[in-house]
Amino acid sequence: MLNTFLLIGGLALILIGANALTDGAAAVAKRFKISDLVIGLTIVAFGTSAPELVISSMAALGGSADMAIGNVVGSNIFNVLMIIGVTAMVMPIKVGNGTLSKEIPLVILASFALAFCANDILLDGDNANIISRIDGLILLCFFLIFMRYTFAIARNGGDEGEGEKIKEMPIWKSALFIVGGLAGLVFGGQFFVDGASGIASALGVSESIIGLTIVACGTSLPELATSVTAALKKNSGIAIGNVIGSNLFNIFFVLGCSATISPLPMGGINNVDMLVLIGSAILFWLVGWFFKKRTITRVEGALLVVCYIAYTAFLISQQ
Fold first, then answer.
1. Could you report the per-residue pLDDT of 33-83, keeping only the tens digit for each?
2. pTM score of the predicted model
3. At what angle do helices 104-117 and 133-156 cross, to 10 degrees?
4. By three-state DSSP, how is residue 157 classified?
5. Distance (Å) of CA 140 to CA 114, 136, 137, 195
6. Distance CA 263, CA 258 (A)
7. Whole-angstrom Cα distance, residue 68 to residue 86?
8. Angle at Cα 21 formed by Cα 28 and Cα 196, nearest 5°?
């Protein structure tokens, strides 16, 4: 009963927080003439990835490497296949040229970087696959490069941000909406994960599967709610920038910090999961370029969702 209450209460907090965060972030973007894409890549993406950071860091400290890595890998797969898919099904997403030529390729690069760090046996002939402290520091260096690039976008202006008129609000109110929205997302995500993990553990599901599915989905609910809300408000820059920023933040910063705290053995996370991670990032790029150029349509969104359902079914079949 408690786990069910945590699930429902967490979801309610997530939805309320996502709406407040989107309104506050959009108002800030308008006031300071910052593109929606940059806001999505930074304030929104970092805020909605806070659950992943907290949970993966705590898991690393507690010696639950499967949970820490599975949370990030599963969240990134969920972000692309489910969040972009569901958002596109609700409202087709317009994708800018800069996003297709620069930001999404960065997501692909991050996925490959993680796969390389996680393949010590294949690449070096070691006895175990471990994301070491050195790997963690390298990922953090990539994160600094990403931040430098994001600030360059902010200085030069972006090509996203067109949509319905964004309502203006005083700066104090915008800040209150952003902080309150982030608080709702973080605590709501934590409540949801606690409830879902309790239910999954009671069913005897392995830690790696819990990390790849239940925990990953729970910690990604803020991104889902934020992207769908932003798309409905025709802020496509926030909708897509949120996912891109979250995926880069998860790999470069969340795993970078977690591995620096404590080396992370891969355990039950294998190359199938790494291939799905890379494949989902490449598919993200392809659906933006083809079919209806620079727009992820409802049909393409449905394709992404089907791919995620197939991956989840595969994980369950391996139990």
1. 776 667 666 766 677 677 777 777 777 777 777 777 888 899 999 999 999
2. 0.79
3. 170
4. coil
5. 12, 6, 5, 31
6. 8
7. 25
8. 160
